[in-house]
Design brief:
The chain is α+β, with helices and mostly antiparallel strands and 196 residues long. It has eight helices and four strands, in the order ααααββααββαα. The protein is extended.
Amino acid sequence: MNLSFIWEALAVLFVGFCLLRILGKKTAAEMTGLEIITLLAMASMIGHAISGHGLWKTIVTLCIFVALLITVQVLAIKLDWVERWFMGKATLVIQDGKIIPQNLKKLRLSADQLEAKLRAKGISSFADVKTATIEMSGQIGYELMRHAKPVTIGEFEQVLAQLQLKLPQQQTQPNGNLFDEVLRQEHEHRISPDLD
């Protein structure tokens, strides 16, 4: 029995993995239509390769898919019409607390679906939303009205300064930031061997 197909399958999966790493870190919800189609085509090609349609032909095809996608992504950065045509643009769905029905119809999005997206972001009223868009990825982007915005630390400190209250002394020893660990590429404190 010829077991070379095992090595071919592993080679195709490794190449596919490397190409996906080149494409970047995105969840399915963040992908554009073109990225999803490329991913599905790659999955199909990997499946065909494993069933015996040729290792090198499959690897070259996968590389062509990724090269075309990267080319479109680079052109989309430089040319607005390429971005609009292949990636899409955000669509305004709420302006000054009012829904824009014609844009919802273009997106084939019901008011109930829009409400669900807002509730997921903790927004309970259209009147609290100054502007909302449905982004290329299908996610909602929004800006709250002034009365609905949370107070920032900077704004709070300004109010305290105006009231001439003394601010508590800041800690001299920082508690540690998880992002600092990513920047340093090492843990600040020793991690339990159970979690490594």
